[in-house]
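We give the entry.
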Amino acid sequence: MSPDCPLAIFRDFDASYDPLPRRLGGVTQVNYSSIRAGLLEFRRRCEALQHGVLVHQLCRPIWQAFIKQAALEGALSLPGYARGGQAKRREYLAVKWIPQGWQWVDPKKEFDAMLTAIRSGLLSRSEAISSFGYDAEDVDREIAADNARADALGLVFESDPRHDLAAAPVVVPAVPDASGGATSDEATIV
């Protein structure tokens, strides 16, 4: 396959193809802003293809056929699917399609911006998690399991927002004097 083939594919989709094939000599001498702008445009086009073409024209029909066949064969217990009407069928066919997440040019800046958007109410945690290609419910279950395990073992991590380690006083044990005796009976709180 010619190295120009991937580029031709992106030209056909009228997509910005420079960010993708760096190894093919696409992007040279760009700054953070220009590479980020190019990547965002490229991602917008890819997401439109993912949701408009792949999900709606490929994934959804396959899912619907799978559920219908599984219900007909009795492979899945779907009470009310056959005689529950359109609303009940819609319940069983409801699915959230989460494509693979994207890596960022400068993750720290992107995470800071995302945190600001979440705190200001412009973005939900679920949407932020989905943007990385994960399901928020799965992530929440993992966090709960991690926290329960850490609590059971008496572990406290700086990354755990349930514990404000910055505000906690630091206890320094009493220091013995030159003769080996303690200078005071109490520890110092810093």
